[in-house]
Amino acid sequence: MPGAIRIHENGGPDVLRFEDVAVGQPGPGEVRLRQTAVGLNYIDVYHRTGLYPVELPTVLGMEAAGRVEAVGPGVDELRPGDRVAYAGGPLGSYAEQRLMPARGLVKLPDGIDERTAAAMMLQGMTVQYLIRQTYRVQPGETVLWHAAAGGVGLIACQWLKALGVTVIGTAGTDEKAALARAHGCTHVINYRRENFVERVRELTDGAGVPVVYDSVGKDTWDGSLDCLRPRGLMVSFGNASGPVPPVNLGILAQKGALYVTRPTLMTYTATRDDLLRCAGELFEQVLSGAVKIEVNHTYPLADAAQAHRDLEARKTTGSVVLLP
């Protein structure tokens, strides 16, 4: 039987168990995939710990690539042997094989291998919706991007540089700062040594930035608001340091009539057309060479617990892939 990483309770990495699972024939609108690469993302930690509640037991994971083995009734766009990738629900990508709704799958173009695809779909499409839809960044603008050396951050730095945007990034070590800078981040602030609010104000001549992209959450929330110019947009898309506490909306008025949004990839790719448009623009950036996807860490699927430990300890940079 094929194996999968499943959790029966919320908790630390030790709750991840590699177990045999039964994978049947695809039903209407479904395909059966043999997965060759699985993406590791911080949202997987949220599901494991219960910060984002899921029904248990469950197989974790939201992103993978592989080949179609069989198609169910009503599936016309795909056929056995097609190379495909996906990001988003339903959960279950930490598996050697799985059933998946065909509407959530995207065919891979020639020139993008499956390991690269598994490393970029969730993070790359996240960047696409953040910088092209949530706030459509314009050439010549300056933005603040927290965790610039993370998987999403490194893609964003490259894409924004290609658009002619100045990126102010934050990182926790000199090594991560150098990595972000090498990927197009114009100014990198080591938040362990520098006050990022003061540095952003200095770098923008006191004006602040029109948009802050923040996946850190609790630790950076207040400071991020102070980096915005009047009527600026705070984009909170993650909680790596913990969830943002309840917000007094009056603070937004006091700090300059600010806007706040909490977007999700699932919302921005809810329709088939939205998904294909988002993935298509990502593929264009990668195939053109503007964005290079770097798989800096790989782990056997059975060692997912160690991969989670390293991710939470901030020992990883760029993309992390589990190999079935």
UniProtKB/TrEMBL annotation:
State the similarity comment: Belongs to the zinc-containing alcohol dehydrogenase family. Quinone oxidoreductase subfamily.
Which top EC class applies here?
oxidoreductase
Q: Which reaction does it catalyse?
A: 2 a quinone + NADPH + H(+) = 2 a 1,4-benzosemiquinone + NADP(+)
What protein name applies here?
A: NADPH:quinone reductase
Enoyl reductase (ER) domain ranges (all copies): 11-322
Q: Which Pfam families match?
A: ADH_N, ADH_zinc_N
Q: Name one GO molecular function term.
A: quinone reductase (NADPH) activity
Give its E.C. classification number: 1.6.5.5
Q: Which PANTHER family does the record associate with it?
A: QUINONE OXIDOREDUCTASE PIG3-RELATED (PTHR48106), QUINONE OXIDOREDUCTASE-RELATED (PTHR48106:SF13)
Which PROSITE patterns does the record match to this protein? QOR_ZETA_CRYSTAL
- What's the source species for this entry? Acidihalobacter ferrooxydans
Q: Name one GO cellular component term.
A: cytosol
Task: Check the record and name the SUPFAM superfamilies matching this protein.
Answer: GroES-like (SSF50129), NAD(P)-binding Rossmann-fold domains (SSF51735)
List UniProt keywords, sorted A-Z: NADP, Oxidoreductase
